[in-house]
Design brief:
Blueprint lengths: L1 E5 L5 H10 L3 E5 L14 H5 L4 E4 L4 H11 L8 E4 L5 H13 L3 E4 L2 E2 L1 H7 L2 E7 L1 H14 E8 L3 H29 L4 H8 L7 H4 L23 H18 L4 H15 L11 H6 L2
Parallel strand pairs: 1-2, 1-3, 3-4, 4-5, 7-8
Antiparallel strand pairs: 5-7, 6-7
The structure holds nicotinamide-adenine-dinucleotide.
The site of nicotinamide-adenine-dinucleotide (NAD) has 25 residues, from helix 3, helix 5 and helix 10.
C-alpha cells in the first residue's frame, strides 16, 4: 500500500520501518527529521499526497487535531486516516468526524506493547471506527503488531486503552505497596511472588512485569528500572482516563488516586525517565 507516516519518534519510526520491510511504499514526515530508510516529505500535507492510508503516531490530541486539519483536505476520498497515538477520546472522535465530512475513513488505533513491541512488530492495537476501514488496514496491523481488536465506533480504541491503563496503573501501585509491606513483615519477596502469582491477588503487574528485581520473568526491575513503559507515559494515560471519567460523569476514585501517586512520582520525585514499576523502591525504601 501507499502509506504516509507522520510522527517518527520512539514508536513511529520502528513501526514505519517494519511497514517498509514488509514491502509497503512509505513516505514519512516529522519536524525532527530523523534518519530513516524511506523518503521523508517536506510537510505532512506533502506526505499525504496520493496516500491510501495516513498513519499518525503523535504526542497528544492537540497535535493530532492540528495535523488532521492540515492533511485531511489533501487526502484522496476513500483513503484511511489511521491514528495510533494515545489521545483523549474527544479528540479522536472530532478528528474522525472531520475525516468523514471530507469523504475519508477513520480509525483510532492506540497501541500497547511499548518501544520493544514497536521494534519487534508485536504491538496490540485497540481499534475504534469504520469496520470496512478496519478490514482494509488489517494487513498493516499484522505487520506492526500481533493482535488487533475492533472495539466499536470512533473513539472506542482510545476508550479501551485508557480503561486498560487505569487498571494497570492502580494494580502496579498496589503490587508495589504489597511488596513493601511484605518486606517490613519479614516475608521473603520470592515467597510472596510464589503465593500471589498463583492466588487471587495475581495480575499482569505481578506475573509478567514483576516490580521486584530478581523475581519472576525478566522485567525493567532487573534492568535498573530503565523503561519499558515510562512513569510519565503512565501519568499521561491516567490524566486521559481522569478527563474521560469527568466528562462521562463516572466516579473513578482509585484511578484518581493512581494519578496523584504518579504525578508526585514524576513531578516531585525521581520518577521521570524511570519505568512505571519503579514505584517499588519508592515504597520499600521510603
Ligand atoms: P515521541 O515523542 O518519541 O514521538 C512523537 C513524534 O511526533 C516526535 O518525533 C515529534 O517530532 C513528532 N511530531 C510532533 N509534531 C508533529 C507534526 N506536526 N507532524 C509530524 N510529526 C510530529 O513519542 P512516542 O514515544 O513515539 O509516542 C507516540 C505516541 O504513542 C504517544 O501518543 C504515546 O502516548 C503513545 N505510546 C507510547 C508508548 C511508548 O512506550 N513510548 C507506548 C504506547 C503508546
Amino acid at each position: 500500500m501507499k502509506i504516509a507516516f507522520l510522527g517518527l519518534g520512539n514508536m513511529g519510526l520502528p513501526m514505519a520501518e517494519n511497514l517498509v520491510a514488509a514491502g509497503h511504499e512509505v513516505t514519512g514526515f516529522d519536524p525532527a527529521r530523523p534518519a530513516a530508510s524511506f523518503p521523508l516529505a517536506a510537510s505532512g500535507a506533502a506526505a499525504a499526497d496520493g496516500a491510501e492510508v495516513m498513519i499518525t503516531m503523535l504526542p497528544s490530541g492537540e497535535v493530532l487535531r492540528a495535523v488532521a486539519a492540515e492533511v485531511v483536505p489533501k487526502m484522496t476520498r476513500g483513503a484511511i486516516l489511521l491514528d495510533c497515538s494515545t489521545v483523549d477520546v474527544d479528540s479522536a472522535r472530532a478528528v474522525a468526524e472531520n475525516a468523514h465530512e471530507a469523504g475519508l475513513l477513520a480509525l483510532d488505533a492506540p497501541v500497547s506493547g511499548g518501544i520493544g513491541g514497536a521494534k519487534g512488530g508485536t504491538l496490540t492495537f485497540m481499534v475504534g471506527g469504520d469496520a470496512a476501514a478496519f478490514d482494509t488496514a488489517r494487513p498493516l496491523f499484522d505487520v506492526m503488531g500481533q493482535k488487533a481488536v475492533h472495539c466499536g465506533p470512533s473513539g472506542n480504541g482510545q476508550a479501551a486503552k485508557i480503561c486498560n491503563n487505569m487498571i494497570l496503573g492502580a494494580t502496579m501501585i498496589v503490587t508495589c505497596e504489597a511488596f513493601a509491606l511484605a518486606d517490613r513483615l519479614g516475608l521473603d519477596r520470592q515467597a510472596m511472588f510464589d503465593v500471589v502469582s498463583t492466588s487471587s491477588g495475581s495480575s499482569w503487574s505481578m506475573t509478567a512485569y514483576c516490580p521486584a528485581p530478581g523475581i519472576g520473568p525478566d522485567s525493567p526491575a532487573d534492568n535498573g528500572y530503565r523503561p519499558g513503559f515510562a512513569a510519565e507515559l503512565m501519568l499521561k494515560d491516567l490524566r486521559l482516563a481522569a478527563a474521560a471519567a469527568e466528562s462521562a460523569g463516572v466516579r473513578t476514585p482509585l484511578g484518581r488516586a493512581a494519578l496523584e501517586q504518579y504525578r508526585d512520582f514524576v513531578e516531585n520525585e525521581d520518577g521521570r525517565g524511570r519505568d512505571f514499576s519503579a514505584m517499588l523502591p519508592r515504597f520499600a525504601d521510603g
